[in-house]
Amino acid sequence: MAEVKTKGEVIFNRAAIVAVLIALVIMLTPIFWIGATAFKPRNLATTAPPTVFFEPTLSPFAKLFTKRSQLREPVDEATYAAAPWWEQLIYDGGESVVRNKKTGEATSSGYGNRYMNSLIVSIISTFLAVSMGTITAYGFSRFRVPGEQDWLFFILSTRMLPPIVVAIPMFLMYRAVGLYDTHVGLIILYTAFNLSFAVWIMKGFIDEIPREYEEAALVDGYTRLQAFRKIVLPEALTGIAATAVFCFITAWNEYAFALMMTSRNAQTAPPYIPSQVGSGLSDWTVIASGAFLFLLPVAIFTFLLRNHLLRGMSFGAIRK
Amino acid sequence: MARIELRNIQKFFGAVQVLKDVNLTIEDGEFVVMLGQSGCGKTTTLRAIAGLETVSSGTISIDGKEVQDLRAADRDIAFVFQSFSLYPHMTVRENIAFPLRAVRMSQSELDAAVNEVAGVLGIERFLNRKPSALSGGDMQRVAIGRALVRRPKALLMDEPIGALDAKLREQMRAEIKRLHISRGSTSVYVTHDQIEAMSLADRIVVMHAGLLQQVGAPEEVYNRPANLFVAQFVGSPVMNVSDIAVEGGAGAAVLSFGKGTRLPVAGGHVGHLPGQRPVKLGIRPEAVLLRHAPEPGFVETETTNIEPLGSHEIVDVRLGDATLRARVEPGFVGDGQKVWVGIDPERAHFFDGESGMALRRTA
Fold it and tell me: What is the nearest CA distance from B6 to chain A, expressed in angstroms?
């Protein structure tokens, strides 16, 4: 069947397309800027007007992952020829790699470790928050909990003040119990942040799943736990995916607590990137490359779950 | 197949008592329909049998074994929901196979059982579809298939066709009846639709306010209602009920409808009515008789409204303070015309004006 559109609808559609394009440009420009700067030679990073066309280089990434020092005089040709490609890129920028005195190996900058810390902390805390949140939400949704409304309000109230308000007491407590600068410490913190959010969002999704599904499974010979696993979880998958994306983004982007509660061992990537600003030389290409790599996991995670996020609630098989 | 016994079942939701001492025995292979308005406790009773609801006191036994403390999974009973509740993330085949997967069963046995039940219900061609791609009637066929595939001890149905449109309901009603006859499964069926109850049931259980009002075969419930509630709930159009005064006795009486309208009646339950007490006359439209000319036992009145229904017409006539609705042939009488009205004493019901209980000859 052909769609019939009035003139007004056509104009509205075109206006909507233009609006979406403008919004897209506004939102994507900073990301393009970061992405472009991450591949620029250092001397093109801060030109005015900005350089749009250039020959991309990987030297910012080589610099990002290594510890370097300024070269007083150019390196001799034999050493340059013997060096691996990434070290040559560093030499090209007038710097040399700082080597371990005993082994002679290049020293890493610490970004790699920080990045791994970010992944470990974000993935584990997201998993914990979503799984505990789902189970808690199921309990609130399906059983009569004495004081249910009060409990739910209490859970929500943990998000009612800016987290940074509790930073100092948290810092003192963490230091006292030995959680300062540990992965476990950050995981507990981020799980606690996200749990209230996960409970509330998942409760909404689970409330939407009709009880009759589980009751049918219970009558058909399954236990409550089996019914939860075989019926509720698959039905709640959309909600779980959405909640996981938001929890992951929160944990991945968290800056203030990561800066305060960690130093060397468990520090995540966000506090590291700005630490490269200043300290004598501000190499914006290195900062951009760090930020660019930092954007990738969230983008990939969201991309993988996009079908669940877009599918929405499609409960077609029940009559209400 | 099984015999289900409910003994002294009470159920409270907080302070509200929804089941008041329910006693009922459902025989092996019987089709029992629980009939009542919403909130009367019929669904709660059904869910209690299934184990989806606990009872506050009393015992439920299936084949002599008490089950009220068992989990739903251990009662070996199947349940069909009004909402069908097919699992949307599974295909029709997986939906039907789902109860079989709870017990370890070989794939070939499982396939055979699913195919057999799909054949009986005529849903083979949908087996690989998702439930959302089915029509309402087919969804309910799948739901019934999922209930039957395990060969449960009893099949419980909670308004299974209530969500379908009228034509489909009629068709599904016939299918459920045919299925029951061919499988002989003990079935308990909850509905608020008295036509469904009449057409399907071996026995009807009429419930109201958590109490069983009457338990009996459809014709018994229709022809000998135990009280005013049953009389008015069963039958369409609804039975005429009017307050009357009774004069006389011993086989014949004069029923006074107020405003000086007096109808002499003889036979039926008439001679056994108590004098002096308020009495209600209940008479179904088909037992209200109209005549074009005066006859003994008929009084003159006028028609006040006519509802043509194709096969017959419902005619309203005034009789004293009461309006009686009579069922007549199409075109029998016009609106506002003079007619003579009488009642068939054999089909007249009398109820105690206070308790609503039926007053009848104790034969």
Answer: 19
Mapping DSSP to helix (H, G, I), strand (E, B) and coil, where does residue A153 land?
Answer: helix
Please name every residue paired with B288 in a beta bridge, in sequence order, or none if there are none. B343
The whole-angstrom separation of Cα B79 and Cα A219 is: 7
Q: What residue in A sits closest to B138 (Cα-Cα)? A: A317
- The answer to whether B265 touches B348, Cβ cutoff 8 Å, is yes
**What architecture (CATH level 2) is domain A111-311?**
Orthogonal Bundle (1.10)
Cα-Cα end-to-end distance for chain B: 37
User: Residue B233 falls within a domain, yes or no?
Assistant: no
**What amino acid occupies position B299?**
V
Q: Which residue has the tokens 């007053």?
A: B359
At B50, which amino acid appears? A
- For the cut 60, the answer to whether the pLDDT of residue A280 exceeds it is no
pLDDT of A320 reads 38
Task: Say whether both B218 and B333 belong to one domain.
Answer: no
- Cβ(A238)–Cβ(A216) below 8 Å: no
For chain B positions 149-188, those within 8 Å of chain A (CB to CB) are 150, 163
Q: Give the pLDDT band (50/70/90) at residue A250.
A: very high
Burial pattern A274-289, b for ≥16 Cβ within 10 A else e, equals: eebeeeeeebbbbbbb
The domain of B355 spans: 240-359
- Probe site for chain B from A220, A226, A231, A233 (most B CB atoms < 10 A): A220
Q: Where are the beta strands (DSSP E) in chain A?
A: 68-70, 95-97
Cβ-contact A71, A40 below 8 angstroms: no
Question: Taking all residues of chain A, what is their mean pLDDT, rounded to a whole number?
Answer: 88
Residues B277 and B322 in one domain: yes
Q: Which of A285, A274, A281 is nearest to A62 (CA)?
A: A285
d(CA B25, CA B49): 12
Burial state string for B314-348 with b = 16 or more CB within 10 A and e = fewer than 16: bbbbbbbebebbbbbeeebbeeeeebbbbbebeeb
Residue A278 pLDDT grade (very low, low, confident, very high; cuts 50, 70, 90): low
pLDDT band at A318; cut points 50, 70, 90: very low
CB B143, CB B80: distance < 8 Å: yes
- Residue B130 to residue A317, Cβ atoms within 8 A: yes
A 10 A CB-CB count for B220 gives 14
Cβ neighbours for B247, distance < 8 A, ≥ 6 positions apart: B253, B254, B256, B262, B275
Q: φ, ψ for residue A27 (rounded to 5)?
A: -80, -35
Domain at B303, CATH number: 2.40.50.140
Given B73, B81, B146, which is nearest A212 (Cβ)?
A: B81
Chain A positions contacting chain B at CB under 8 Å are 210, 212-213, 215-223, 226, 231, 234-235, 314-320
**DSSP-based three-state secondary structure for B84:** coil
CATH number of the domain encompassing residue B11: 3.40.50.300
pLDDT tens, A122-178? 999 999 999 999 999 999 999 988 999 999 999 999 888 888 888 899 999 999 999
